[in-house]
Each structure stands twice: as structure tokens, then as C-alpha cells.
């Protein structure tokens, strides 16, 4: 049966989320409800037992796309711009002084293009490009020029506070606004891990954005996952899993490779 209307026999299956639909109308409804773009995730983890010739062919074509995109990025004139390199180097150095390992991607990558993070030398303060992800509602919001001294709780107020949030946003995120604020958790993915072993750090909502980013690896800009304690499912928080070591020893290059693959896929 169609998983949208539950009335008709299913005819289609979404390549992205594997939901069954019976018609174009139901396909559009499911995309709207789940914020699904209907595009198959070429970098999704596939176990060895489920790996087929089609997966092998898909990986081969994906690597070809990666090669073409990397070549196009290398030819981009901004890639060789002295001014751009100097600005990015300065931004990384300022972050390093704040104990933040900020890394930037080559020109042509989606996160590089959309990143608007700046450092105000007069105020000696970062203004971050920030992405908020609300997985239980399949919603994402992008914030620009967020001062680094702003507490995370104040950043979230326009979204999940029952009184201060925008009515339209409040309706979309009603599962959050209806829950006690003590159940809200803010997580950030740890970058130095393999794609099939994703772990998160839990952040302190009462502290500033800068304090929470210290000691972390940031690729271009922070992405914060806002989850509810009772519904976080398989989002494993580092230090709360008894079988989990203190920190992964996977190489940093593996982490960057994982992120860059996803970004190349987007820009392709």
C-alpha cells in the first residue's frame, strides 16, 4: 500500500527514503512532509552482505563524477586567488587561537560556496554561518552572522520557544515546542570518524557558541542537531555508550574524504 494515502496499491518507491507511493500527488506530498528531495544518496553506507554489482557500478560512476568535479574546481580562477587564500588562512589562524580546528574545502564545494563566516577584528569576535537541523521534523534552517558570544539557548529561542518562536516555525517544529525544554539536546557530529561509525558531542545550551566549539573540528561552519532526549534513536553521543572509547583514532584524512565526497555529490 501507498505509505502516504494508505488507500491505493503502491507503484513507485523513492530512491532517497524508500517510501512507497501510488501517484505523482502522493510523491509530492511525501517529499513535502519529509523534506525529501527524491535523489538517491550515493554515499550511503552499504554492508558487504548487501553489496551488489549495481552498487559497484554506482560507486564507479560516483568516482568519475568526483574526478570531474575536482578537476573543475582546480581550474576555477578563485582557487588560485591570492586574496582568497589569504582571507581563509587568516580565518583559520583566528580560529586556532580560540582552540577551534577550522578547516576549509576547495572552491566549488557546496559548503565552501555557502559559508558566510567572518571575523570582526575590531570586536575580536567571530560571526558564524550556522546550520540548525531538527531531525524529528525533517527541518533545516540556516543562520548567518551569529555572534560567537551568543548562548545556544538564545540561538534556539526563535525556533523552539513556545512564546518567542515564529508561528509558522512553531507549527512546523511543534514536537519540540510541545516538549519540556529539559528534554532538548544539542548535538554536533564528530568529524574524525568513519562514515559508518557516526558519533556526536553533546553541547551545553547555557554556554556560548564559542565555548561549545572549543576543542572541536569544524569543516567550513558548524551544523547543530537539535534532538529530543526520548527520540534521538541511533544518534550515539560520545561518552554515553559503554562500549565506546574516549575518541576515535581514525585518520583525519578519512574524515575529510567523507565530507568532501558528500559535498562533491551535492555540487555535481
From TrEMBL:
The keyword Metal-binding appears for this protein: yes
GO molecular function annotations of the record: zinc ion binding
Compositional bias ranges of the Low complexity kind: 242-259
Renumbered residue ranges of the record's region Disordered: 241-268
Cellular component aspect of the GO annotation: nucleus; pre-snoRNP complex
SUPFAM superfamilies in the record: HIT/MYND zinc finger-like
Pfam families recorded: BCD1, zf-HIT
Organism superkingdom: Eukaryota
Any one Gene Ontology BP term: snoRNA localization
Protein family membership: Belongs to the BCD1 family.
Protein's name in the database: Box C/D snoRNA protein 1
Amino acid at each position: 500500500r501507498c505509505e502516504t494515502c494508505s488507500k491505493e496499491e503502491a507503484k513507485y518507491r523513492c530512491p532517497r527514503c524508500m517510501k512507497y507511493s501510488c501517484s505523482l500527488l502522493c510523491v509530492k506530498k511525501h517529499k513535502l512532509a519529509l523534506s525529501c528531495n527524491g535523489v538517491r544518496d550515493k554515499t550511503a553506507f552499504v554492508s558487504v552482505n548487501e553489496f551488489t554489482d549495481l552498487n559497484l557500478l554506482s560507486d564507479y560512476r560516483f568516482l568519475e563524477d568526483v574526478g570531474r568535479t575536482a578537476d573543475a574546481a582546480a581550474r576555477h580562477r578563485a582557487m588560485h586567488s591570492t586574496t582568497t587564500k589569504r582571507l581563509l588562512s587568516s580565518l583559520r589562524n583566528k580560529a586556532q587561537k580560540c582552540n577551534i580546528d577550522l578547516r576549509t574545502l576547495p572552491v566549488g564545494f557546496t559548503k565552501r560556496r555557502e559559508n558566510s563566516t567572518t571575523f570582526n577584528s575590531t570586536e575580536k569576535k567571530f560571526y558564524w554561518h550556522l546550520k540548525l537541523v531538527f531531525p524529528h521534523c525533517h527541518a533545516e534552517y540556516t543562520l548567518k552572522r551569529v555572534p560567537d558570544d551568543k548562548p545556544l539557548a538564545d540561538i534556539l529561542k526563535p525556533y523552539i520557544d513556545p512564546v518567542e518562536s515564529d508561528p509558522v516555525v512553531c507549527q512546523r517544529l511543534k514536537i519540540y515546542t510541545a516538549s519540556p525544554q529539559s528534554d532538548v539536546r544539542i548535538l554536533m557530529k564528530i568529524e574524525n570518524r568513519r562514515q559508518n561509525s557516526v558519533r556526536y558531542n553533546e553541547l551545553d545550551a547555557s554556554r556560548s557558541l564559542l565555548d561549545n566549539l572549543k576543542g572541536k573540528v569544524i569543516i567550513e561552519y558548524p551544523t547543530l542537531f537539535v534532538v529530543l532526549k526520548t527520540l534521538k534513536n541511533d544518534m550515539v553521543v560520545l561518552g554515553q555508550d559503554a562500549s565506546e572509547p574516549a575518541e576515535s583514532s581514525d585518520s583525519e584524512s578519512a574524515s575529510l574524504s567523507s565530507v568532501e565526497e558528500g559535498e562533491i555529490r551535492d555540487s555535481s
